[in-house]
Description:
disordered N terminus, four-stranded antiparallel β-sheet, Jelly Rolls, alpha+beta, binds N-oxalylglycine, 24% helix, seven-stranded antiparallel β-sheet
Amino acid sequence: MPASSLRPTGAPELSLLERSESLDEAAAALRERGWWSGDDALDPLLVQALLGSLARLQSAEALYRAGIGRENEFRVEKTIRGDRIHWLSRNDPVQARFLDQMEALRQRLNRALFLGLFEFEAHFAHYPPHAFYRRHVDSFRGAANRVLSIVAYLNSDWRPGDGGELVLYAETGEEVLARIEPNGGRLAIFLSEEIPHEVLPARRDRYSIAGWYRLNASIQGQIDPPR
Length: 227
Ligand code: OGA
Ligand code: MN
């Protein structure tokens, strides 16, 4: 009997976790080259539910302009990033389900990679047409905060030519490691400190969740500042 028929209806699992060969492949790719992307990593029902949740937040005007920097260095900079975000919370059952699956993934990745991933934070992101996020890294070396970045894509019918690719670069220089189209159900994972990346402008509204696995916030006596 396939594992999927054992699960209660309405409780989709992270498809990636049900295919151990995909998970092994992801762990090996992260170890060897620092990034991985896989299709159908998220259950389509969950992708739909997350998109619904994001649409409700959007109509409630609960998305706000993303900024750059932390705390007193925080500022909104449209020339750097144009997305609108909302941090996920466990109060919403759909968001909680996604966070549960990321927790399961955290445990599996820790077992495979010994990264000591400790906690996870994530936000919805909406890039309106023509919005972009210029080349950046998600964490700075030695800051001991974000270790692995994940992006889950929510648009179900992305077509070639729609733009909006996530472009991953080699740590130094202009070499392109990957151009990842934001297809619904796809998950991209990469090392937060090592992989510079950017989001290209799209012709359409682009919906995703960006998340980060972090180390213990007070590791080595250094208190990691809030997001
Ligand atoms: C980010 C980011 C990539 C994407 O939010 O930091 O790089 O594909 N997102 O949305
Ligand atoms: Mn990023």
